[in-house]
């Protein structure tokens, strides 16, 4: 994607060849700011505080976090400590563990003096692979949009997306947004209903920002609006991302996704999930029972941050003093509610068979 006309990824190696640049996503949509990270602790903070977030980007960031740790100390002990520290930052997105395992596999059998270079090489590959995967997801998802467009000539295809599974959640392009950007670039009329307006406003702050930058028509809605729109024929398809898909095709994504899937089922609206293969966790089956659901700080619910009329960024409390607050960050949509999984290898049935047939090499290893 371009920022001020310049092609920009969400994570990059700085010109010094070892420190890591990121976009500070907590400053969006009001300010575009970047940060230079030079140590493991910087990366841990960035992931925990959600300066970087979104499952595939968390994976890429963790990979570079390992690189920064190795720069300081390439010993086996240090690698183990860095792995454990990064793994504990966010529990739900499986891409984090996948990327950490990839780096460990790349450096494990290397002599100490070769480990840093091997880690940086694999981290760069993870980033490039992510971009290629998203392009493939885009091409497969585009066909779904084209089919709908052909059925309603002259009218825009209305897509509903939840949270941010866009450019900002990955290294470039996005998962759920890849088909949307490709359709828009091809001149297909498309309009996006944007939600996740609570708990973190990732739709309102991030998806709306990046769609707007790319010129894609969109409308921000309150999270609870989706069902109403579907009842009135105002949504042609739902396309969301995911933080973990189980071996049987259950989908874990930002809290509220499950309710969108239920509403979609009740209204015969197709519900698609876009994912890169590192998001599949073949080690778990029943998503509701087995996926750890991150619970985040109460302040994300009890307060809201925004820009005042005179341009100041302020946080205000919106819950009475003393009220208990719960902040579950993700939920699980059972496979039976998912119309299809859009992967780099095509659109699959959300089932054990569908996933195993498309990714036999992963399914057999159970990871
Ligand atoms: O809590 P976040 O902002 O990291 O959660 C992001 C989401 O839920 C996305 O939909 C998901 O990571 C898919 S990313 C392509």
How would you portray this structure in words?
The protein is built from 13 helices and 18 strands. With 367 residues, the protein is α/β, with parallel strands linked by helices. The chain has a seven-stranded mixed β-sheet with strand order 8-7-6-9-12-17-18, with helices on both faces. Strands 13-10-11-16 form a four-stranded mixed β-sheet, with helices on one face. The protein has a three-stranded antiparallel β-sheet with strand order 3-4-5. α6 (177-185) links the parallel β6 and β7 (190-195). α3 (76-87) packs antiparallel against α4 and α5 (112-151) packs across α6. The protein is globular and about 60 Å long. It binds 5-S-methyl-1-O-phosphono-5-thio-D-ribulose. 5-S-methyl-1-O-phosphono-5-thio-D-ribulose is lined by residues 53-56, 93, 163-165, 169-170, 175, 202, 241-243, 253-254, 329.
Major sheet: order of its strands? 8-7-6-9-12-17-18
Strand content: 15-25%
Bound molecules: 5-S-methyl-1-O-phosphono-5-thio-D-ribulose
Which outline best applies? globular
Task: Give the low-confidence spans.
Answer: none
Number of strands: 18
Structural class: alpha/beta
Give the N-terminus to C-terminus distance in angstroms: 31 Å
Which percent range fits the helix content? 40-55%
Mean pLDDT: 97
Separate helix tally: 13
Major beta sheet summary: 7 strands, mixed
Gyration radius over CA: 20 Å
Oligomer: single chain
């Amino acid at each position: 994607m371009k920022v001020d006309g310049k092609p920009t990824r969400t994570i990059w190696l700085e010109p010094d060849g070892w420190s890591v640049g990121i976009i500070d996503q907590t400053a969006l949509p009001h300010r575009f700011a970047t940060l230079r990270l030079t140590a493991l602790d910087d990366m841990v903070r960035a992931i925990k505080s959600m300066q970087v977030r979104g499952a595939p980007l968390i994976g890429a960031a963790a990979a570079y976090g390992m690189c920064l740790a190795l720069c300081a100390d390439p010993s086996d002990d240090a690698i183990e400590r860095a792995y454990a520290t990064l793994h504990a930052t966010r529990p739900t997105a499986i891409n984090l563990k996948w990327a950490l395992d990839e780096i460990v596999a790349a450096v494990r059998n290397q002599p100490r003096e070769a480990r840093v270079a091997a880690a940086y090489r694999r981290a760069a590959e993870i980033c490039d692979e992510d971009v290629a995967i998203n392009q493939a997801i885009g091409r497969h998802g585009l066909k779904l949009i084209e089919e709908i467009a052909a059925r309603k000539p002259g009218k825009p295809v209305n897509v509903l997306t939840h949270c941010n599974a866009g450019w900002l959640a990955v290294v470039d392009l996005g998962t759920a947004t890849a088909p949307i950007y490709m359709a828009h670039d091809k001149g297909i009329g498309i309009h996006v209903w944007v939600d996740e307006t609570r708990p973190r406003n990732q739709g309102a702050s991030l998806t709306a920002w990046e769609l707007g930058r790319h010129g894609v028509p969109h409308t921000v809605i309150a999270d609870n609006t989706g069902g109403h729109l579907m009842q009135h024929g105002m949504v042609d398809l739902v396309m969301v991302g995911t933080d973990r898909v189980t071996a049987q095709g259950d989908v874990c994504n930002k809290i509220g996704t499950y309710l969108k899937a239920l509403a979609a089922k009740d209204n015969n609206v197709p519900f698609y999930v876009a994912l890169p293969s590192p998001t599949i966790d073949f080690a778990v089956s029943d998503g509701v029972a087995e996926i750890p659901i991150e619970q985040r700080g109460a302040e994300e619910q009890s307060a809201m941050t925004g820009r005042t009329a005179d341009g100041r960024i302020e946080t205000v409390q919106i819950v009475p003093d003393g009220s208990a607050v719960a902040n579950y960050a993700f939920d699980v949509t059972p496979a039976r509610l998912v119309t299809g999984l859009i992967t780099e290898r095509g659109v699959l049935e959300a089932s054990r068979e569908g996933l195993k047939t498309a990714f036999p090499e992963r399914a057999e290893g159970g990871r």
